Amino acid sequence: MHDLGDGEEMEQYSFDWDALDAPEPPDPESPALGRGSIQQAFLDFDEAHPEVYEYLMQLTREVQQRGFRHYGIGAMWERMRWHFQIEKGMDEEFKLNNNFRSRYARKIMKAHPDLEDFFELRILRAD
């Protein structure tokens, strides 16, 4: 019981913080994710459009050369939309799925150790 100071008491409950522990996210490289997963869609898109990774790497290196140690993948993603749809004339037929942003950031940082912490990442919640 907790004394409220006016002669009344209130029962105090404790909060179980351990109950908030999220389960481990699936390994994005796991073959168990199967077709229809975000990861599989990303792999399919990446294979079909190597120009996206190449241009994203170009932007990343440009930002890095200007002295940035960290940068937002979202800003680069929107710049890529402009590049492919407006500058390259691909119009609305060329879609960049926002679900792929963090996967490209992970791919870049994994492939290029000098960019290990360049992008801020969160835990993947979806497969």
Summarize the structure.
The protein is mostly helical. Helices cover 42% and strands 3% of the residues.
Topology readout:
Layout: E1 2-3, E2 9-10, H1 38-48, H2 50-65, H3 73-87, H4 101-111
Question: What structural keywords apply?
Answer:
elongated, two-stranded antiparallel sheet, 4 helices, 127 residues, mainly alpha
Written overview of the protein:
This protein is mainly alpha-helical. The chain has one domain. Helices cover 42% and strands 3% of the residues. The protein contains 4 helices and 2 strands; from the N terminus they run ββαααα. The chain has helices at 38-48, 50-65, 73-87, 101-111; strands spanning 2-3, 9-10. Strands 1-2 form a two-stranded antiparallel ribbon. Strand 1 (2-3) and strand 2 form a beta hairpin. The longest helix has 16 residues, at 50-65. The N and C termini lie far apart (45 Å). Residues 28-34 have low confidence and may be disordered.
For the record, the count of structural domains works out to 1
Beta content comes to: under 5%
Number of strands: 2
Low-confidence stretches: 28-34
Average pLDDT for all residues: 82
Largest sheet: 2 strands, antiparallel
Instruction: Give the helix tally.
Output: 4
Order of helices and strands: EEHHHH
Question: In one word, what is the shape?
Answer: elongated
